[in-house]
Give the backbone structure.
Amino acid sequence: MKPWPFLCLLPLILHIPRTTASTPICAVQGSGQTSPYVGQSVTIEGIVTADFDQRPPKGFALQQIDCDSDPATSDGVFVSLGTSQDVVQRGDRVRVTGTVEEYYGLTRLRADPSDATILSQGNTLPVPVPLSPALDDDKTYYESSEGMLVSLAQAPVIGPTDSRSETWLLPASLGLPRLFWDDAQGYDARLVLDSRGNFALSPEGRVGDRVDFEGLLTFEGGAYHLQATSAPLLYPAGGAPPSGLRPPPGAAAFSFASLNLENLFDPYDDPATEDSVPSSAEFHRRLEKHARLMHDILGEPAFIAVQEAENAEVLEWLAARPEWEHVYHWLLVEGPDRRGIDVGLLYRPDLVTILGYTQEQGCTTLQDGLGPDGNLDMAHPANALTCDTDGDGSLDGNRLFSRPPLAIHLRLTLGDGSQGEMWVIVSHWKSKTQDTTETAYTLPRRLEQAQFTGALAAARADFPVLVLGDLNDTPNSAPLEALRIYGLFDAVETIPHAKRYTYIHEGISQPLDHACGNAAFWNGAVLQMQAVHVDADMPEIFQAQADSYYRASDHDPLLGVYLAAPWHVFLPVVGREER
């Protein structure tokens, strides 16, 4: 037989392209927190389940249906292209070669658009995996679905939609409508519905709403994120608008409040500080919202302790708003905060007479990089020497507070016409901004601030004393326990647990604002305390609505009604009637 018929086929055989063996996606993901293929070049094949190649995060997700039978390994992975380019469409079957990497906890394939080959189009998408963790599951539960299509049904919103269009959710399987700071479990089950998917949550979510979701599960910034591939459905919680407590008419009682004004800056630049400068329209819109809240909901209490006001002029503008029924005066002393925010007091002169006040500053030897004299470098902390700790005339310490407490001696006129004196210490302690999951850098300073504040109250123990403000910590924390050592009891602890929060951070409801009274304050009296939930639960979108008191701040106000004991007004001026 002549060989020439077979030889003529040889060129065709030689030009058949070689197919690189593909690695199963589930093998790339592995059963642990990191991929066993990190740093290696692999080729994978799968169905495109989410297409973000022309918008952030600039890539697409591939999922290999029935990759293996191991529930601990994910069948999906995100392919990062690093550039906006139309490469694939949802439903394409794609082969792509790239380098496996762990990008801040997300297993992904980094690839060039030219290394992606479309094998077929219009393929059936995999069925989304319902997310239903149990309370005792840890983050490995979500790791096994990372990069895959997932779904949620009736997931409660535990953190409202914020300025980054991120909404915090919990799967309904946990049975938790809200996550509190002192919950023993549930933290690892939090999910972030962000706006980088093909659809955003609309309308924006408030705490208590519920959401149906289908889309991609990814990981970034220490949390698992959801990116919608179809429009999420939101079921509003509804409910009546909030109402505030009121003192009984004609009773020996008064009301008071505390509110963090959330960076209430005026529209003028202060070159001496790192202040924000809002537009005039934005500034007056915020003034209107605060005034509406204080009038409509708080009922214009005798005094309002405020935090994060830029200066006395800001409070003067606020007091001049037409929403007020009563006249308000203001009190503020400038402090050394880098951004220029201070604590102050709004008060009704028909009910309150200021007998004296003083700004109280401490001096510490902490070299933590914090406070008004710190370099804010947690790796190499240093503090300039600006004060004298032992009175020997030499500078050996730095100022303890960026926002020093304002101690105010005042006389109150109660609803029955009786009068008496008390001290209010308006406080705003150091935030936990510089803390990490490994190190509580701010704790030593906050603990010293608590001890200093407690000593201020103890020095005035002959009078009723109320420490009021944003203490940036929760009950049973070391700083709050330090106040207890000085004989101060937190009225926030009288609020039912389900309502005991004034702030929500990453889906965690927590009471950061407090009202701590000494023995003379509590002696024989009844205090009704309320956290008025008009801010923390509400989405950021309400902040732009001048005619609504919702989201006037990121903190809920505290509102208290103090009813004196039946046999005496709690204030020292009035005592038991002589027989």
User: Anything to note?
Assistant: The radius of gyration is 30 Å. The chain is about 10% helix and 30% strand. Residues 1-18, 573-579 have pLDDT under 50 and may be disordered. The domain at 21-120 is CATH 2.40.50.140 (OB fold (Dihydrolipoamide Acetyltransferase, E2P)).
